Amino acid sequence: MNNIEFQIEQETPRRGVLVVFILILSVIALLLALAVNGIGEEVPAETSTSTPDTTQNKVSFEKSYATHESYDLGGHIASTYGSGAMYDTLVNLHTGPRLLNSTLQMNALPVGQHIFFDSLFISNNGYGGDPNDSTVMRASKGKLYDFQGMFRRDRQYFDYDLLGNPLITPVSVTATAAGGGTYIYPNVTTAPHLFNTVRRMTDIDFTFFPVSKFHVRTGYSKNIMQGPSYSSMHEGTEGLLLQSWRTSTDELRLGVDWKVVRRTTVTLEEHVTHFKGNTTDQLAGLNYQLTNGVPVSIGFDAVTNNTAPVCTGYASYINNATTKPPTVNADCSTFQSYIRNQATRTIFPTEEFRFQTAYWEKLQMNGRVMYTGGNSNMPNLYDYFNGLSGTNRQIIITGNANAERIDVTGDYGMIWQVTKHIAITNQYDFADWRQPGTGSLTTATWAGANAAGATATSSSNLTPINPLPYPSVVAGDANMTAAASTAVTSNYLGMKSETDTTLVNWQASPKASVSIGYRYRVRNINVTFPVAGLNTTAVRPVVKINENTALLGAVIQPNSQWKINANFEGSYADKSYTQISPRQSIHYQLRSRYKPAKWAYISGTINDLERRDSSIVSGVVHYDHSRSATMTADITPNERYGINASYGYSDVYSSTNECYLYLPTGTAPAAATGCTTAYPQLVEAYIDEPTQYGDFGAYGTVLKKLRADVGYRISSVSGNTTLLNPVEPLGALDSQYQTPYAKVAWAVSKDWIYRTEWNYYGYGEGPIIGPTAARTFHGNVYTLSMHYEF
Amino acid sequence: MRRLSSSLTLLLLLPVFWMAVPINAASPKNQTATVATTTNPPAASGYVGAETCALCHAVQADKFGNNPHSKLALMHGGKGVTCESCHGPGQAHVDGGGDITKIFSFTKVGTKEASAKCLTCHADVHPNFERSPHAEAAVSCTSCHSIHASVTEASLLKAEQPKLCYQCHTQIKPQFAQPFHHKVDEGLLKCSDCHDVHGTFEKHNLQSTAEGNMVCTKCHVETAGPFVYEHPPVKTEGCTSCHSPHGSPNPRLLNIGNMNALCLQCHTQNSLFTAAGPVGPSHNQAAKYVACTSCHTQIHGSNASNVFFR
Lengths: 790, 310
Fold this sequence. Notes:
The complex is a heterodimer of chains A (about 800) and B (about 300).
Chain A lengths: L1 H10 L1 H25 L27 E18 L1 H7 L5 E13 L10 E9 L4 E10 L3 E14 L13 E3 L7 E3 L10 E14 L5 E22 L1 E23 L4 E14 L2 E4 L4 E2 L5 E2 L21 E3 L6 E2 L5 E8 L2 E17 L2 E27 L2 E26 L4 E26 L34 E28 L2 E19 L6 E3 L3 E17 L2 E12 L10 E14 L2 E16 L4 E16 L5 E20 L20 E23 L2 E13 L1 E2 L12 E5 L2 E7 L4 E14 L11 E13 L1
Chain B lengths: L1 H19 L29 H7 L1 H6 L11 H4 L4 H5 L3 H5 L15 H12 L10 H4 L4 H4 L18 H4 L6 H4 L3 E2 L9 H4 L34 E2 L1 H5 L10 E2 L10 H6 L27 H4 L5 E2 L8
Antiparallel strand pairs in B: 1-3, 2-4
């Protein structure tokens, strides 16, 4: 892998050097500008006309600032019951000390020198073991610069054991060898695609000369995700793979804003995004062996594969269940070894030009043009399989791939205040992205012959690999063959779209306004795809979709405390690209907010989105809707007491007619109406997710130095869905998640506060758990901390 | 590469042009971020100066030192006013004994007028606001921001995200309480990480990446591609074809929990659509309960397999 990384870096040094060179030139340009304008020189503190007091300049750094710091040090004590995997997936708070929070605030005083900053703010949260921690930093110095920086770290653990799980119940099978005993296939207890990764995100932004007519902005973002995760690979059977996940992205931003004339700004920006994918895969789960003792994996869903060709001719995978580990039949598909490296480098340089003007009193305009010429390169794929897949004992795939993304985007918007009460807005959007890609893959295969000398079409795990390079045949073993083929494919995906939206807004009175509008959108989707088994691509006809949308909106304010918003959007498209892309869509929204005082409000929303793509002509039958009614109320007159509450009901529903292959043992069923013999089974695949949510919270200063918070939250889903797998339970689709909490804060002294917090996490599904372990858990997390500020 | 170099060279030369053009954001040497305390305020007609405002509005004046708007004092040759930059000339208000009708008050005007005042300076960074769904719904800058009574210093918000957004978007709060959700309530993400609440050219105020991909790829970079073998709807229809980004009772924020039912929505037999249906004994749903993504693992796109195996 080190060689692969080194080779890749050699190909992109010019880009990296160029970026660094540009940054250095930027800094030099800025320093020159500073020198010319004398900015950054030492300045006395006061703006008064009094003679600067030189003694003030000798004030120490510390006394030049008003400084405020606070620290929350403490820790969690966590106790959990039930599914640790589900608790780690949803909560993942564990026992240990923490830097719960710290802040530092420094503001310049009118004494002393302030060389680097006038104000500085730093805060930290969650360090010491929480799944999320963060650092925020802000600094500014007058009209010289503004700085914002943020670091976030997120531990992502996922082990929801129903996703992708074959749900093998403990099946007992008889070993094929005489006296081999019986074997019970174990449950797959974890999610086959479990992951335990960490994402680290850093964002830094500088703005130089923020109040001048000419700004310079520069920024940098880094996103790293790494950690172990599991994946799988189909080669005969489905082998479990351990991934060392590692991806990183660096984004550089450089922009200049220039206030050309009154209330008009033009902007030039350059973005450069560089992605590095270094994830590698290797075989996991070598839990069985061959008769010669070689460890093998039979895949994590071997039972379901038992009657498939992967183990043809045998009643079960297991030859002998009395050995440790169990011995598998040599003629069944196995993984003995697997490695994959496919390091990828992608770069997206983007140029952007923007303008915004309100020069004319009744006309505001803005727009942008962007161009991206991106490139993705996978120079060296190495995919190595050793085991038995069909007749192949070994497969090595090497090659390279290159894809581009060329994106041209143009947007324009304007508002014309025609009269005092009527305004017209228009927005035009153009996007044309094209992604051609070329891949050249060489697949070398080594077949083997059965040790007993069966036909050339059979192979065995025990057959040694032909050590000679392909294409060659081992002398005297006509059944051992090696072959190689190279496939070069060129594919293309592109979409060109134009959208125009026009709205007329009428301010009927200070208390009411109405808007009516129309949107037209056209998309042209162009695809070429590889034809299976051939070194050619097929071109599909361009799919052109015209979509028309009517827009209506109203705002009513019966009085200064009460506002009601209503919106309607209805659209129709003459085609769709997929069966679930809606051709007809209607969206209603009604929102009301009543705010009788600055410290109290009650608001509610009714939302209904109905979509469908159904036509007797096309045979597509798809409906989906998302409906909700929610409200929230908050009364917080002061810091001493307050209450809040929320309630929501939502119903998400989707139904699609699906034709698929379903052939239980016995006679193949006739094709259902609307389906074909290749996909004879028809099902109305649906999902219904009625959800109720509620929360309540209250806080109060119980005694002079004692404040308490209590609250309760619950989210309950009572859903149902079509289960193609009859052993699969509903899982989280039929679940309740409760999280009550209580907090007490005791002001020990002016600077010290003792805090105790209790959080309960209760998750349950019901009543059918399924063949895996129950995912129910209860967790109590006590957080004790001392808060000190000075 | 040549185009990139030319663009960047132009950007680098712009500061040189700027140096040649006199600008009025000048720099007297005695500047701090605190409110300017000029003893001789400018003679601009109708303006009284911030120290006059502070005589009655001491609370607001005291807190203003930490406010980003205190930079206004540095503008216009160091003689920039602060209070009156937003509230207008105060002479009539003072002469009227504090007559509130003689000064611009954000709570007494309509939302458009209130926003227009802020956009006088901030229109360049929020050029889409007046066409945004928020503006159309009569949400003004002061609906979310408070110059004098903010809770968050960074953006002068009246409340922290997401609590501020939940005050109106009540239907979103339950979504983030679903078992599988983006960690907004936990504080890892904010609404403004994905949405630009001041308006964008996209629907739902969504941001997008510089190269025109959905904003999801800003964090989920491995799905951005481009790939030799694309899963076309990921790019043409968007991530919400399969995922519910706020929260879902289904793992991986999927729209449908049963993986095979999700994929078969499109990969089903229909002569008008080109998504291939799964055929062959390995796809027999009666005999093989394996999830589609157990084999088709690189479902967002692949450089090495036209069926997304690797």
